[in-house]
Design brief:
Blueprint (H helix, E strand, L loop, with lengths): L2 H8 L4 H32 L9 H5 L12 E2 L6 E2 L2 H10 L4 H11 L3 E13 L6 E7 L6 E7 L4 H5 L6 E9 L7 E11 L5
Parallel strand pairs: 5-7
Antiparallel strand pairs: 1-2, 3-4, 3-6, 4-5, 6-7
Length: about 200
């Protein structure tokens, strides 16, 4: 269709209709152009960045970074970590604004077997599921962390014999669905020291 004939054809309609039609055409073209530009911008953002390989001299002049999180010693069992809850809490706090390092730190601890000590805060049993749990607090004021320990039914008597403030060592598998409030699926629990005072 010839644009001149279209303009002559539109003169037959009232002014408000011609204005509305012009807005519709210009708006549609603007929307189409915006979508094309948006798609191009998204495509550019998803392309991998190509970095030049550094020369040997440039690589040698880069200073090594000091470790930012506490060093966690792994035992012979690849899923076993010899760290304390305090070291874990300090590591989380130290890496709070370093997302990738924090994620790697959490992944190293996820499903790891640990043996952690803490003060008994509460022993409870869920009414419906009958899940037995123990809440322990560990660390100093600067690095205090609470750990929810799920206990097997075989530890029921031992768990309900505990008092608030007793020091226990719990061994089990760590679960970090909420990294700042870890869960521990216990396989063993030992009373280290009873609370002092009455």
């Amino acid at each position: 269709m010839d644009p001149a004939k279209l303009i002559d054809f539109l003169h037959l309609y009232p002014y408000w209709f011609r204005t509305l039609f012009a807005i519709w055409i210009v708006g549609g073209a603007g929307l189409a152009a915006g979508l094309v530009l948006l798609k191009e911008d998204q495509r550019r953002q998803t392309q991998p960045l190509e970095m030049a390989k550094p020369s040997i001299d440039a690589a040698a002049s880069i200073p090594a970074l000091a470790p930012t999180a506490p060093l966690i010693v792994q035992s012979s069992d690849p899923r076993s970590l010899s760290s304390s809850p305090e070291e874990y809490a300090i590591g989380l706090r130290t890496l709070s604004d370093r997302f990738l390092e924090k994620q790697e730190f959490i992944e190293r601890h996820q499903s790891a077997n640990v043996s952690w000590e803490g003060r008994v805060s509460r022993v409870s049993q869920h009414a419906q599921s009958k899940t037995l749990s123990l809440l322990i607090d560990a660390g100093s004021r600067e690095s205090e962390i609470s750990i929810l320990v799920e206990l097997p039914d075989s530890m029921r008597t031992k768990a309900f014999s505990l008092q608030r403030g007793d020091i226990v060592r719990v061994t089990g598998k760590l679960s970090l669905n909420t990294p700042s409030f870890p869960d521990l699926e216990a396989t063993d629990m030992v009373l280290i020291r009873q609370r002092s005072g009455g």
